[in-house]
Amino acid sequence: MTRIGFVGVGDMGSRMAARLLSVGHPVTVFDIAPQRVADMVAVGAEAATTPAAAARDADLVISSVMSADIPSAHLAADGILAGLRPGTVLAVTSTTTPAILNSIASAMPPRTHLLDAALVGGVRYAAEGALTVLLGGDEEPAAASEPILSSFGEVVRVGPLGSGVAYKLITNVVVMAAEAGLREALDLTDLLGGTYATALDLLARGPMAAVVNRALDRGNPRPVRASAADFDVLIDAGGAENLPICAAARKRLWAAATAADSPMFYDLTTHLTALPRYRGPTVGTSTTS
What we know:
alpha/beta; N-(1-d-carboxylethyl)-l-norvaline Dehydrogenase, domain 2; 2 domains; 8-stranded mixed beta sheet; 47% helix; 13% strand
């Protein structure tokens, strides 16, 4: 089996690494949170003390870190690139910008290979092996890595290096604007004296059904702050002047993210993330308020 290094075993990465372990791949993991590493060791992974150590003996390294952590996880003195051996493939699954991916590409050691493997889908999809992997990169390393990446779901080849990152951002324009639009629809519900239960029921009957059902799914956790941070990446890539709808949606989503202590995605459908004058803990725990 292929020896894999996995850097970043949070909500998504832990589910992905577990799937690799379940089919027999040896997996060495690193995360900035020691408990996450301990949890993976408990299900059969090996622990590494740095990203470089996770990469050192691997044939394929998969990184799944938050956008803000990408430079340090990959480019620091003890980062992933410091541990890569000739012939090793690095697949970056994080949501990031072409510029950040290019900074990694320009620093890759000789005779190593970089792929971008952006992901579509949330934690539930990662656990079920139902993600969509947007794979970009050269043919040979992509072909060699595809059978392993298919453990996460359907692999879609989208073009040369950078294509996975680009198409992920393109899909995020629609998805994330819809997320902020859902919150704003409920803001209007408050302003017009309606109920969330009725508004959500009606929205779920139309083209917003997938967004509403995703927001109401408490088994598919995602912090609102993580969605807001993805908006930051999107704006960094495209520019606020070119993406005015996204720029406005980012403002509303960040307001929701900071409305309470670490609200989750389903809180977009509650009064916990409502406009300040409608916000309140007594109505913030139920989607029927």
